[in-house]
Design a protein that fits this description.
Radius of gyration: 16 Å
Shape: globular
Low-confidence stretches: 196-203
Mean pLDDT: 91
Structural class: mainly alpha
Largest sheet: 3 strands, antiparallel
Distance between the termini: 28 Å
Order of helices and strands: HEEEEEHHHHHHHH
Length: 203
Protein backbone atom coordinates (compact mmCIF):
# COMPACT_ATOMS: atom_id res chain seq x y z
CA UNK A 1 0.00 0.00 0.00
CA UNK A 2 1.57 3.28 -1.11
CA UNK A 3 1.25 6.78 0.31
CA UNK A 4 -0.51 7.73 -2.93
CA UNK A 5 -3.15 5.06 -2.27
CA UNK A 6 -3.65 6.42 1.24
CA UNK A 7 -4.00 9.96 -0.08
CA UNK A 8 -6.62 8.79 -2.57
CA UNK A 9 -8.52 7.01 0.21
CA UNK A 10 -8.33 10.08 2.44
CA UNK A 11 -9.61 12.30 -0.37
CA UNK A 12 -12.48 9.97 -1.20
CA UNK A 13 -13.47 9.59 2.45
CA UNK A 14 -13.41 13.37 2.84
CA UNK A 15 -15.59 13.75 -0.24
CA UNK A 16 -18.15 11.29 1.12
CA UNK A 17 -18.30 13.26 4.38
CA UNK A 18 -18.80 16.59 2.60
CA UNK A 19 -21.48 15.12 0.34
CA UNK A 20 -23.31 13.58 3.28
CA UNK A 21 -23.14 16.81 5.29
CA UNK A 22 -24.41 18.85 2.34
CA UNK A 23 -27.44 16.55 2.04
CA UNK A 24 -28.21 16.94 5.72
CA UNK A 25 -26.70 13.62 6.77
CA UNK A 26 -28.29 11.00 9.01
CA UNK A 27 -30.15 12.67 11.85
CA UNK A 28 -29.54 11.92 15.55
CA UNK A 29 -32.20 10.04 17.49
CA UNK A 30 -34.49 12.32 19.49
CA UNK A 31 -36.66 9.67 21.16
CA UNK A 32 -37.14 5.92 21.40
CA UNK A 33 -38.23 4.74 17.95
CA UNK A 34 -38.69 1.36 16.32
CA UNK A 35 -37.65 1.15 12.65
CA UNK A 36 -38.66 -1.54 10.20
CA UNK A 37 -36.15 -3.12 7.79
CA UNK A 38 -36.63 -5.90 5.22
CA UNK A 39 -35.18 -8.26 7.86
CA UNK A 40 -37.28 -7.09 10.80
CA UNK A 41 -37.31 -4.25 13.33
CA UNK A 42 -34.61 -2.53 15.35
CA UNK A 43 -34.92 0.12 18.03
CA UNK A 44 -33.03 3.35 18.46
CA UNK A 45 -32.85 5.82 21.31
CA UNK A 46 -30.65 8.85 21.94
CA UNK A 47 -27.12 7.82 22.82
CA UNK A 48 -23.90 9.47 23.84
CA UNK A 49 -22.74 12.29 21.58
CA UNK A 50 -26.05 12.36 19.68
CA UNK A 51 -25.48 9.07 17.87
CA UNK A 52 -28.38 6.62 18.29
CA UNK A 53 -28.06 3.57 20.54
CA UNK A 54 -29.33 0.57 18.56
CA UNK A 55 -31.05 -2.42 20.12
CA UNK A 56 -33.48 -5.28 19.49
CA UNK A 57 -35.13 -7.73 21.86
CA UNK A 58 -36.57 -11.22 22.22
CA UNK A 59 -40.13 -9.97 21.90
CA UNK A 60 -39.26 -8.82 18.41
CA UNK A 61 -37.22 -11.96 17.63
CA UNK A 62 -38.52 -14.81 19.85
CA UNK A 63 -36.02 -17.52 20.67
CA UNK A 64 -32.95 -15.51 19.64
CA UNK A 65 -29.95 -14.47 21.70
CA UNK A 66 -29.02 -11.28 19.88
CA UNK A 67 -25.82 -9.27 20.06
CA UNK A 68 -24.83 -5.63 19.76
CA UNK A 69 -21.22 -6.00 18.65
CA UNK A 70 -19.87 -6.42 15.14
CA UNK A 71 -17.44 -9.19 16.11
CA UNK A 72 -16.84 -10.67 19.56
CA UNK A 73 -14.02 -13.09 20.35
CA UNK A 74 -14.84 -15.80 22.87
CA UNK A 75 -12.07 -18.31 23.38
CA UNK A 76 -11.17 -19.59 19.93
CA UNK A 77 -14.54 -18.67 18.43
CA UNK A 78 -15.93 -15.47 16.98
CA UNK A 79 -19.50 -14.45 17.61
CA UNK A 80 -21.45 -11.26 17.03
CA UNK A 81 -23.43 -9.67 14.22
CA UNK A 82 -20.97 -10.29 11.38
CA UNK A 83 -20.30 -13.99 12.18
CA UNK A 84 -24.06 -14.59 12.51
CA UNK A 85 -24.46 -14.11 8.75
CA UNK A 86 -23.25 -16.35 5.95
CA UNK A 87 -21.30 -14.93 3.00
CA UNK A 88 -24.33 -14.98 0.69
CA UNK A 89 -26.31 -12.75 3.05
CA UNK A 90 -24.06 -9.72 2.73
CA UNK A 91 -25.02 -8.62 -0.80
CA UNK A 92 -28.72 -8.43 0.15
CA UNK A 93 -27.75 -6.54 3.31
CA UNK A 94 -25.76 -3.99 1.30
CA UNK A 95 -28.67 -3.64 -1.13
CA UNK A 96 -31.07 -3.06 1.77
CA UNK A 97 -28.78 -0.34 3.13
CA UNK A 98 -28.78 1.36 -0.28
CA UNK A 99 -32.49 1.35 -1.09
CA UNK A 100 -34.33 -0.50 1.68
CA UNK A 101 -35.90 -2.95 -0.79
CA UNK A 102 -35.46 -6.73 -0.99
CA UNK A 103 -37.50 -9.52 -2.52
CA UNK A 104 -38.98 -12.31 -0.41
CA UNK A 105 -36.58 -14.73 -2.09
CA UNK A 106 -33.59 -12.73 -0.85
CA UNK A 107 -34.72 -13.11 2.76
CA UNK A 108 -36.02 -16.68 2.64
CA UNK A 109 -33.57 -19.04 4.30
CA UNK A 110 -32.34 -16.58 6.93
CA UNK A 111 -32.90 -17.81 10.47
CA UNK A 112 -34.52 -15.54 13.06
CA UNK A 113 -31.07 -14.99 14.57
CA UNK A 114 -29.70 -13.96 11.17
CA UNK A 115 -32.62 -11.62 10.51
CA UNK A 116 -32.01 -9.99 13.89
CA UNK A 117 -28.30 -9.58 13.11
CA UNK A 118 -29.00 -8.07 9.67
CA UNK A 119 -31.58 -5.64 11.05
CA UNK A 120 -29.16 -4.61 13.82
CA UNK A 121 -26.39 -4.05 11.27
CA UNK A 122 -28.67 -1.77 9.29
CA UNK A 123 -29.42 0.28 12.39
CA UNK A 124 -25.80 0.42 13.51
CA UNK A 125 -24.63 1.45 10.04
CA UNK A 126 -26.98 4.42 10.15
CA UNK A 127 -25.78 5.26 13.66
CA UNK A 128 -22.19 5.25 12.40
CA UNK A 129 -23.22 7.84 9.80
CA UNK A 130 -24.43 10.11 12.61
CA UNK A 131 -21.07 9.83 14.38
CA UNK A 132 -19.12 10.42 11.18
CA UNK A 133 -20.75 11.73 7.98
CA UNK A 134 -19.99 9.58 4.95
CA UNK A 135 -19.46 6.42 7.00
CA UNK A 136 -22.34 4.60 5.32
CA UNK A 137 -20.43 4.12 2.05
CA UNK A 138 -17.39 2.87 3.97
CA UNK A 139 -19.41 0.36 5.96
CA UNK A 140 -21.27 -0.86 2.87
CA UNK A 141 -17.94 -1.60 1.20
CA UNK A 142 -16.73 -3.43 4.32
CA UNK A 143 -19.93 -5.49 4.40
CA UNK A 144 -19.60 -6.24 0.69
CA UNK A 145 -16.14 -7.69 1.32
CA UNK A 146 -17.74 -10.16 3.73
CA UNK A 147 -19.57 -11.68 0.75
CA UNK A 148 -16.29 -13.43 -0.09
CA UNK A 149 -16.49 -16.76 1.81
CA UNK A 150 -12.75 -16.59 2.45
CA UNK A 151 -12.93 -13.12 4.00
CA UNK A 152 -13.11 -13.95 7.70
CA UNK A 153 -15.43 -12.09 10.09
CA UNK A 154 -12.61 -10.53 12.18
CA UNK A 155 -11.26 -8.89 9.01
CA UNK A 156 -14.28 -6.58 9.13
CA UNK A 157 -12.57 -4.79 12.05
CA UNK A 158 -9.62 -4.00 9.76
CA UNK A 159 -11.81 -3.00 6.82
CA UNK A 160 -13.89 -0.67 9.01
CA UNK A 161 -11.78 0.31 12.08
CA UNK A 162 -14.65 2.26 13.62
CA UNK A 163 -16.12 -1.16 14.43
CA UNK A 164 -13.38 -1.79 16.98
CA UNK A 165 -14.01 -1.04 20.63
CA UNK A 166 -13.01 2.58 21.07
CA UNK A 167 -12.93 3.08 17.29
CA UNK A 168 -15.61 5.76 17.07
CA UNK A 169 -12.99 8.52 16.88
CA UNK A 170 -10.85 6.76 14.26
CA UNK A 171 -11.83 8.98 11.33
CA UNK A 172 -11.22 12.17 13.31
CA UNK A 173 -7.77 10.90 14.34
CA UNK A 174 -6.92 10.17 10.71
CA UNK A 175 -8.01 13.62 9.60
CA UNK A 176 -6.01 15.30 12.34
CA UNK A 177 -2.88 13.33 11.37
CA UNK A 178 -2.80 11.34 14.63
CA UNK A 179 -3.55 8.04 12.89
CA UNK A 180 -2.74 6.46 9.54
CA UNK A 181 -5.04 4.21 7.55
CA UNK A 182 -3.89 0.59 7.42
CA UNK A 183 -3.90 -1.30 4.12
CA UNK A 184 -7.23 -3.17 4.57
CA UNK A 185 -9.08 0.07 5.28
CA UNK A 186 -7.52 1.82 2.29
CA UNK A 187 -8.46 -1.10 0.03
CA UNK A 188 -12.02 -1.06 1.37
CA UNK A 189 -12.43 2.66 0.68
CA UNK A 190 -10.93 2.44 -2.78
CA UNK A 191 -13.10 -0.56 -3.67
CA UNK A 192 -16.19 1.42 -2.69
CA UNK A 193 -15.16 4.38 -4.78
CA UNK A 194 -14.45 2.33 -7.86
CA UNK A 195 -17.81 0.52 -7.68
CA UNK A 196 -21.20 1.63 -8.95
CA UNK A 197 -21.79 2.74 -5.37
CA UNK A 198 -19.83 5.91 -6.15
CA UNK A 199 -22.53 7.16 -8.50
CA UNK A 200 -25.44 6.37 -6.18
CA UNK A 201 -27.34 9.40 -4.95
CA UNK A 202 -28.25 7.91 -1.57
CA UNK A 203 -26.30 8.41 1.68
Amino acid sequence: MTDEDREKANARRERWAKRDTKRGGTQPATSFTTHQTPFGPYNERPGRGGAPFISSNKDQYPGTQGDDRYVREEGNEFTGLIPALDAEHFYPLVQALKDGQLSKEQIDGLSDEQCRAAAMLMGIAKAEAVREPGAIKHIRSALRRQADPEHEAPEFLNDFPQARIGGAQHEKRVRSGKARRASPEVETILEASSSSDESMSDH
